[in-house]
């Protein structure tokens, strides 16, 4: 999965969770998915439409009611659901799972397998603002999902960021090459 697709996928809070549940075998009807995800109806509906728009989900023809359709994974969605399942399983704690639903958490962790400078992360995540990146890095550092080190080998010291603890497990769950 490339970084642009990952950014689009994680822009809705419940997208990863919905894909992970479908991968785990939860039926594609709205009621079981909604119950399994724990999302509000509005957030859940927005995430479902988002996944359909990305081409990861489709309505299952001939199944479900027109007002309560049944969904299934597309071939592209099957691969995304496998990755989403690995990411969600890397964070079993419900308190930490809320951080996983933040828009930029997963893309930032995907880029920090090796130490990265702030400017490098910002360049790779073209649509992120400096403020959003800074706030995300602070949240990740507070939870110890990312480690901030100061590089003093050059004339002007600069911080680098690298995934750590749960952050490195999430990084390994994401396969950016495929």
Automatic annotation (TrEMBL):
Residues 100-174 form the HTH hxlR-type domain. It comes from the Bacteria. One of its GO terms (molecular function) is DNA binding. Keywords: DNA-binding, Transcription, Transcription regulation. This is Transcriptional regulator, HxlR family. InterPro entries: HTH_HxlR, WH-like_DNA-bd_sf, WH_DNA-bd_sf. It holds the Pfam family HxlR. The keyword DNA-binding applies. The lineage of its organism: Bacteria, Pseudomonadati, Pseudomonadota, Alphaproteobacteria, Hyphomicrobiales.
